[in-house]
Design a protein that fits this description.
Largest sheet: 8 strands, mixed
Number of strands: 19
Strand order of the largest sheet: 12-11-8-13-16-17-18-19
Number of helices: 15
Bound molecules: ligand PMT
Strand content: 15-25%
Structural class: alpha/beta
CATH architecture of the largest domain: 3-Layer(aba) Sandwich
Mean pLDDT: 94
Radius of gyration: 23 Å
Low-confidence stretches: 406-411
Distance between the termini: 9 Å
Length: 411
């Protein structure tokens, strides 16, 4: 288990561009700057005009590794935005207002912060801070979903006191959390480069007739979180999916509907994959025969005879190469650990993610998840309630560590 100090070690000697935008919490970015410098990072601060209404550039100049920049048109440096972005190992935006999030999602670059965000290939960590109404506005939710799918890392704000004495969600994450997240992003940057990862996502639809099907509540959020995170970490990813969701440019989406189609696409892609993650909710049974035309209500209640679908995970387990890492999920409403453990051995997987789907904040459709990670060597990890994005990274850490067993430790 790594300590916070081990985690921060990843920042040592790294060039971090700290972008500060205009919110009441801009003063906390001073603490973020100090902590990044203390961790050994080389910090280049950039402030928007709005940020300077809340906090002075001179404060950052005094604490950071180089003077704060505030303009695209700095006389001493004709093109600071490209130089900053090209040389960065990481860009942190803290606080990130709804405005900068919107500009970044839509490719608008009209100041040094937004231009630097577009003129870089370095990983980006965004720490939003705004009033609850803005944080929950569909425009902001959509813009963040777009950024996440492109591989941008987001550290969600906390609940608490906001500007003007209001209380609610939208308060900037604590500086130490932002710096720890920054270190994790740096440690994971490119760590899956060269790996081919196959992920399944969504619930299969087994037709009853041309308009009706047997399905389930899976939204594909968990599967796409894994696919997008793997791509952001450098992997080439195929996601076999029954749903459409925003996908990272390095993710190839194979659309399917039924368990049969998912089996064919997944087994084909798995033949050359380094890792396969079965996050999809695959129907265990399907109607033996689907009607060719819509079943008429007037004909009475139909009798639907079911038959088993192919067990894709079990087939993957049978065909698994020695150098291939196989991850299964077990969606459970009771005895999560015991049930996941029996599926771990029955399906010959390397890692079984026992997913607690009892409560409203975990499992199907929501953005958070509670799971127990059981590995084939008897290892057990229970991260508690975390975002699906965070759980995705924990699962992918296992994939990475299996490829680099000598390094073992988690970032
Ligand atoms: O999509 P979301 O809304 O984000 O929800 C996420 C999730 C709850 C669907 C996901 O986290 C999850 O738990 N997925 C597995 C759901 C499931 O089908 O569990 P299971 O216990 O029935 O199946 C065990 C494993 O076998 C799973 O990896 C499943 O993909 C696989 N399976 C099941 C049946 C089948 N015919 N073939 C399979 O490969």
């Amino acid at each position: 288990m790594s300590t916070p100090d081990d985690t921060l070690a990843a920042l040592r000697g790294r060039r971090v561009v700290l972008c500060v935008t205009g919110g009441i919490s801009a003063y906390k970015a001073v603490e973020v700057c100090r902590r990044l410098v203390d961790a050994g990072a080389h910090v280049a601060p950039v402030l928007t005009d709005d940020a300077q209404r809340f906090v002075g550039a001179v404060t950052f100049s005094a604490l950071a590794s180089e003077p704060a920049r505030t303009s695209l048109f700095d006389a001493a440096e004709p093109i600071p935005h490209t130089r900053l972005g090209q040389q960065a190992d990481l860009i942190v935006v803290a606080p990130a207002t709804a405005k900068v999030i919107g500009k970044y999602a839509h490719g608008i670059s009209d100041d040094l912060v937004s231009a630097t965000l577009l003129a870089t290939r370095a990983p980006v960590l965004v720490a939003p801070a705004m009033h609850t109404e803005m944080w929950e506005h569909p425009a902001v939710v959509d813009n963040l979903a777009t950024l996440r799918a492109r591989g941008v890392h987001v550290i969600d704000p906390e609940e608490g006191r906001l500007a003007g004495g209001d209380i609610g969600a939208g308060r900037l994450a604590a500086p130490e959390r932002i710096v720890e997240a920054a270190a994790r992003v740096v440690a994971r940057d490119g760590d899956l480069t060269g790996l081919r990862v196959v992920v399944t996502a969504g619930g299969t639809r087994e037709p009853i007739d041309p308009v009706r099907y047997i399905g389930n509540r899976s939204s594909g959020k968990m599967g796409f979180a894994i696919a997008n995170a793997a791509a952001a970490r450098g992997a080439d990813v195929v996601v076999v999916a029954t749903v459409r969701r925003p996908a990272h440019p390095r993710v190839r989406v194979e659309p399917v509907d039924t368990a049969e189609q998912m089996a064919a696409a997944t087994l084909a892609a798995a033949a050359t994959a380094d890792a396969v993650v079965m996050a999809a909710a695959v129907a265990d049974f399907r109607p033996k025969a689907a009607a060719d035309t819509k079943i008429k209500k007037a004909d009475g209640v139909p009798e639907i005879v079911l038959e088993p679908t192919p067990d894709i995970l079990a087939l993957l387990g049978e065909r698994k190469r020695a150098d291939q890492y196989l991850v299964g999920f077990a969606a459970e409403t009771d005895d999560v650990r015991a049930n996941a453990a029996s599926k771990l051995s029955a399906k010959r997987v390397d890692l079984m993610v026992g997913n607690d789907v009892r409560s409203g904040d975990s499992g199907f459709e929501v953005d958070t998840n509670r799971a127990v990670l059981l590995d084939a060597h008897g290892g057990v990890d229970e991260p508690g309630l975390v975002t699906k994005v965070a759980l995705a990274d924990l699962i992918l850490d296992r994939v990475r560590d299996a490829r680099r067993p000598h390094e073992g430790a988690h970032a």
